[in-house]
């Protein structure tokens, strides 16, 4: 199986109990960077929909490669599509916002995932990425733990993610700094 | 999946529109069926109400 997908399929049942809920305030601040109304939000690699459940929006869709995680999201009333972050099955300009929450480090093709997010965003739409900074003390501990449980995780620092988003044509803003940080990248309206 | 999802989903390979073929549905959504690309003809299954739009080489049952 692809990347960390098999691990998530095995642990889907326990995931919501083990993971803290995503920081809804920081996510909302990221979404507020959009230069358009945010009605449709797509959570890429969104798993059980843990982060998306904390977001208020008209239409909420979870895309994930792991089917076990999507069953959990469906139970919470979210729309779900099984798909790959680097080959999104979504039309151009179809989303007002894309979120990737605590998940970019699991993706085998991070640049591909960000390019695809940019493609599906409507002009003025925003990509909000929440990640962990591996250069902080807690970040170094997290990297060690994830490798120990069998994940192939690779973490970006805020600066690396900033460069990755800019290379994909998004205008990045650091919304929240620290061990858990949030970068919002806005698609130009031009 | 609810049918209004058809407005935004597409083929993951060439991003063309999909045709919906329904095998089983209830009042709210399509439970089983397939999504067929109008361009390349690739067929993607809908099972337990969840469409599997992974590229075919990433499907669990695909040969490695």
Descriptive labels:
heterodimer, A: 190 residues, 7 strands, B: 64 residues
Concise overview:
The complex is a heterodimer of chains A (190) and B (64). Chain A is 34% helix and 26% strand. Chain A has 190 residues and is α/β, with parallel strands linked by helices.
What does this 3D model show about the protein?
The complex is a heterodimer of chains A (190) and B (64). Chain A has helices at residues 5-18, 24-31, 67-75, 110-120, 137-148, 158-167, and strands at residues 40-44, 59-64, 79-82, 95-101, 121-132, 170-176, 180-187. With 190 residues, chain A is α/β, with parallel strands linked by helices. Chain B has one domain (3-52). Chain B has 64 residues and is mainly beta. Chain B has strands spanning 18-25, 30-37, 43-47, 50-51. Chain B starts with 17 loop residues before the first strand and ends in a 13-residue tail after the last strand. A four-stranded antiparallel beta sheet of chain B has the order 1-2-3-4, with no helix packed on it. Chain B is globular. Classes of the chains: A alpha/beta (190), B mainly beta (64). Chain A binds chain B through residues 1-2, 40, 61, 65, 67, 70-71, 74, 79-84, 87-92, 94-95, and chain B through 1-2, 5, 7-13, 15, 44, 48-55, 58, 60.
Q: What kind of sheet is the major sheet of chain A?
A: 7 strands, mixed
Assembly type? heterodimer
What order do the SSEs of chain A take from the amino end to the carboxyl end, as H and E? HHEEHEEHEHHEE
Please give the share of residues in helix of chain B.
Answer: under 10%
- Spatial order of the strands in the main sheet of chain A? 3-2-1-4-5-7-6
Q: How many domains, in number, for the residues of chain B?
A: 1
Largest interface: A-B, 23 and 22 residues
Ranges of chain A with pLDDT <50 over ≥5 residues?
A: none
Shape of chain A: globular
Distance between the termini of chain A: 40 Å
Task: Please report the distance between the alpha carbons of the first and last residues of chain B.
Answer: 28 Å
């Amino acid at each position: 199986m692809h990347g960390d997908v098999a691990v998530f399929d095995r642990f889907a049942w326990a995931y919501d109990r083990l993971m803290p809920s995503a920081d809804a305030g920081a996510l909302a601040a990221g979404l507020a960077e959009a230069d358009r109304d945010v009605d449709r939000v797509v959570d890429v690699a969104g798993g059980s929909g843990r982060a998306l459940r904390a977001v208020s929006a008209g239409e909420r869709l979870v895309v994930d490669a792991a089917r076990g995680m999507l069953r959990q999201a469906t139970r919470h009333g979210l729309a779900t599509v099984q798909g790959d972050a680097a080959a999104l099955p979504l039309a151009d300009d179809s989303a007002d916002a894309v979120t990737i929450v605590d998940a970019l480090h699991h993706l085998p093709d991070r640049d591909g995932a960000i390019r695809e997010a940019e493609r599906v965003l409507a002009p003025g739409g925003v990509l909000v990425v929440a990640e962990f900074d591996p250069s902080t003390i807690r970040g170094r501990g997290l990297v060690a733990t994830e490798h120990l449980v069998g994940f192939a995780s690779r973490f970006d620092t805020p600066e690396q993610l900033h460069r990755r988003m800019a290379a994909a044509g998004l205008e990045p803003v650091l919304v929240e700094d620290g061990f858990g940080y949030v970068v919002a990248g806005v698609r130009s309206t031009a | 999946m609810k049918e209004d999802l058809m407005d935004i989903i597409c083929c993951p390979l060439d991003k063309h529109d999909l045709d919906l073929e329904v095998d089983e549905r209830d009042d709210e959504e399509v439970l089983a069926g397939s999504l067929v690309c109008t361009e390349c003809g690739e067929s993607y299954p809908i099972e337990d109400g969840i469409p599997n739009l992974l590229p075919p080489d990433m499907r669990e049952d695909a040969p490695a």
